[in-house]
Amino acid sequence: DHWESSLDFLPTFKRDHPEWLNPREIFPDYEGNCEIHTSLNYLVPEVRRLKLRALEELLDRYDLDGVNLDFQRSQFYFRWDKGHSLSYVMTDFVRQTRRLLDAAGERRGRRLALSVRVCPTLEGSRCAGLDVARWAREGLVDLVTAGTGAVNFDIQGYREALAPYGVGFYPCLYGDYEKTESSDQVLRGVAETLLLGEPDGLYSF
Fold this sequence. Notes:
- The chain is an alpha/beta fold.
- Helices cover 37% and strands 11% of the residues.
- The longest helix has 22 residues, at 87-108.
- The model has no long low-confidence stretch (mean pLDDT 89).
């Protein structure tokens, strides 16, 4: 719903609570345009509660094997220059998600998995407030995927941060690489390049 052309699809909770949204001015594109203006501000407690209620509903209704928190399908959650200092907000959100999964898993007699999709590099994730290394150390996540149309990944950095805790890393093989015709040949070439870094596998999107 974040483009001007799709505002008719704006969810009711965003329409009713504009104070939950980040200012559009903090997300300029490469040409200085600020078109994306409906991203949720995760500093607002009601936003985090809304997301957790949605997760609770999914876990109550369906016999899931786990949940993927796709942190790459939205604009970021607060200003880039605040990510390092506000990572505790997102870490607490991931902790609460893990607790919901553990409670549901206890009822079903098995562990439910938690995956996350984050930025192509560890530093990029930290700048976005996503402390992936800490999530692995605390046992919050089971696997990590990264990227959204990126070609360059910090595969070694992720592996060093995740492997000691048994967390797998899967760079994202994307369906549409910007300014490149995503033919089978292009996708095979990207896949071969990613596999040179010896990740645990590839995640396709």
